[in-house]
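#structure-requests
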Amino acid sequence: MLQTVVHYSLHFIAPIAIGYFFFPNHWVKVVLILWATMFIDLDHLLASPIFDPNRCSVGFHLLHSYWAFAFYVLFLFFKKTRIIGIGLVMHILTDALDCYWMGLPLL
């Protein structure tokens, strides 16, 4: 239960804190962009089964691959893509924490 609360708090509540404290003049827009980065989870639809509680998303799904993560990190270095990069990197790190918590290997 605690793992689920932490996981979804990092996905949905942490973006509110990031937007509010680091981008106070545009926090609503920033929060919506950070939440929009959750759409990388659409790659779960390509897997069979779509959800497997014993599978680590990181390194398995296309948009959760290590190559994709490296690409997301590059977004952090450019002002126009920085907020998207923050959301994507935070998403992958949250999923990696979840895998670590469950004792699953990060392929």
